[in-house]
Write a structure and sequence with these properties.
This protein has one domain: 3-Layer(aba) Sandwich (Aminopeptidase). By secondary structure, the chain is an alpha+beta fold. Helix 1 packs across helix 4. Strands 1-2-3-4-5-7-6 form a seven-stranded mixed sheet. The two termini are about 15 Å apart.
């Protein structure tokens, strides 16, 4: 259904369009709420692409150049063999169709096999039920809760901390 490929500066228009939709960025990075102009989005994407401390890939429909989002692992720690997973599906037509779970499994496999990580964690806003379910289907386990750690839509939300270990992932059917 999807394939992971490198992002390019020319993809900035996709992100700009997605960032204009409040529903798309509701549970995403705080910076997405602040990027207002095409130039700001292009600068952010260029910086993101050039950041060598983050593993990131565009999410494309298989055998096409149609970008629907991006995903990867940031905060990579060689000494701790760990990192933090992230995903952003900007094209709403692919929400609820298993894309998030498929992408998450692919990125986890790369994290454990190619990046030699032992632990991959993430945080997800508690109201993001779709994301929570996708992460659990991909093998993540809830470790705890960061109370009122995020402010969105004029209210505080709890963040759930989740992780998956290499040994756990190897036993999953993926």
């Amino acid at each position: 259904m999807i394939e992971l490929k490198p992002l390019h500066e020319l993809h900035a228009q996709y992100f700009y369009n997605w960032f204009q939709d409040e529903e798309v960025i509701r549970y995403s990075l705080s910076i997405f709420q602040k990027l207002q102009t095409e130039d700001q989005v292009r600068d952010w994407l260029t910086e993101t692409i050039n950041d060598t401390k983050v593993y990131k890939q565009g999410i494309f429909l298989e055998n096409t150049d149609r970008l629907i989002g991006y995903a990867g692992i940031c905060d990579l720690s060689v000494s701790n063999k760990s990192g933090e997973y992230f995903i952003f599906i900007g094209d709403k037509t692919y929400w609820g169709k298993g894309v998030g779970t498929e992408v998450t499994k692919k990125v986890l496999q790369i994290g454990f096999e190619e990046l030699d990580l032992n632990r991959i964690m993430l945080t997800v806003l508690e109201p993001n039920i779709g994301g929570l379910k996708a992460y659990q289907r991909a093998g993540f386990t809830i470790e705890g809760k960061l109370r009122e750690a995020c402010y969105r839509n004029d209210e505080f939300h709890d963040k759930l901390v989740m992780s998956v270990l290499k040994g756990e992932f190897e036993f999953l059917d993926h």
